[in-house]
Amino acid sequence: MNNVENAIERHYWRAVTFLVILILAGAGFWGVRRFAPAVFLGKPDLIAVPNDENPKSRTAKQAVANKPELLNINTASAEELQTLPNIGESTAQRIINYRTQHGNFANVDALQNVRGIGAKTLEKLKPFVDAK
Questions:
Q1: Under a CB-based contact definition with an 8 Å cutoff, are residues 76 and 93 in contact?
Q2: Which residue ranges make up each domain of the chain?
């Protein structure tokens, strides 16, 4: 009976070790996906970055030179729209469909006319988009 107990204990610790490794691998995958999304998007130049710097602390020339370019919602592709916060594949397609049916957006606030984009989502998008 001692051999059976040893075998059970050995399998138990192998299972525990496997689960710990699985949890650590999952946490690492989540961390990379959460904090380095460019790894999964494949095109880091398509990631929108808000300009949170205080413009009063810089000269006008520096502000123009350092300001990241905003994503134009009237010309952006579905892939580019998906880099925005809270915009998935279906919402990006709805934005493009709305733009096709109704013409270009007059301003960023017009995004609220697209189904699935409300006031809260619009506030999250404003630092990233423009309707030039």
A1: no
A2: 2-35, 45-130
Instruction: Please provide the distance, in angstroms rounded to a whole number, between the alpha carbons at the two ends of the chain.
Output: 79
User: What does the pLDDT profile of the chain (132 residues) look like in tens digits?
Assistant: 688 888 889 999 999 999 999 998 888 877 777 766 666 665 555 556 666 665 555 555 555 555 567 889 999 999 988 888 888 999 999 999 999 999 998 998 999 999 989 889 888 888 888 887
> 45-130 belongs to which homologous superfamily?
Photosystem II 12 kDa extrinsic protein (1.10.150.320)
The CA distance from 70 to 93, in Å, is 19
DSSP-derived letter for residue 31 is H
